[in-house]
Amino acid sequence: MHTVRIPKVINFGKNALSETQYPKNALVVTTAPPEVSSRWLAKMKITDYMLYDKVEPEPSIETVSKVLTEYKPKNPSTIIGLGGGSSLDVAKYAGAELKIPKILIPTTFGTGAEMTTYCVLKFEGKKKLLQDERFLADMAIVDAYFMEGTPEAIVKNSVCDLTRMMCKSAFEVLYDAIMNDKTENYPFGSMLSGIGFGNASTTLGHALSYVFSNEGVPHGYSLSSCTTVAHRFNKSIFYERFKEVIEKLKFDRLILKAPIDQAADVVMTDRGHLDPNPVPVTKEDVTNLLKDIIDGRL
Q1: CA-CA distance, 4 to 103, in Å (whole number)?
Q2: Which residues is 104 bridged to in the sheet?
Q3: 92 and 201 share a domain?
Q4: Domain residues for 143?
Q5: Structure pTM?
Q6: Boundary residue ending a domain (147, 180, 207)
Q7: How far, in Å, CA of 188 to CA of 182, rounded?
Q8: Same domain flag for 107 and 203
Q9: CA-CA distance, 31 to 164, in Å (whole number)?
């Protein structure tokens, strides 16, 4: 038997953000500074809310604890994750702990996190993949409004993230959007991708990427090379076209500060990503892949 889990409600398309009705006394969680979040909130037409805007990139469990400590006494009716994957992951975990509905609104279109039961947080400085049905959104709102004015670096990192693990239909949408500069189609492709990997898991590319992310490399940037070599290692049907996408985006070569042998040991502990990989992975494989990434042999 197969089971597909997606949010109870998905509001998608033009004006989805402004036409959705938001609960009163909602807690909005975001990484965005006030000058940005104020525009988003005005577009949402939300009036009765509390705002926590101190989520850092690559958030830690301590950030979730701060949210719980500050806002649990205020009895929020709903938690709204507004932002990239970092904001959504904090909202997922905090919402699950508070046992309140979760509304997830992605403002970048790479993680597909609004569709999944996955959450990534740092524990003692190291990223950890968590999976729990409690993390699944009650509502996801996907609107291309956020593509307007998004800095190129953020778009590039998002694009690389969204191509990391996709069903064939999602790949076709995203490949066309990226190669032919149809940015308006990124949200739809990301949503399909999120549904796909949310029910099948991410694999080797993610396991490799975390050793770079732990050193401060943006998540999407780290996936640019890591997912490429993972596609090659797995003999993926997407490898050649994925490589075309990465070449078009012109990412710089990744640098790893940690010794390769030590980094390979860290990767090998990530069973949540390695066990679902379609091809068994040894430490020797990981060591060779990390060398290829650092040397630019994609």
Answers
A1: 19
A2: 81, 140
A3: no
A4: 9-147
A5: 0.69
A6: 147
A7: 11
A8: no
A9: 23
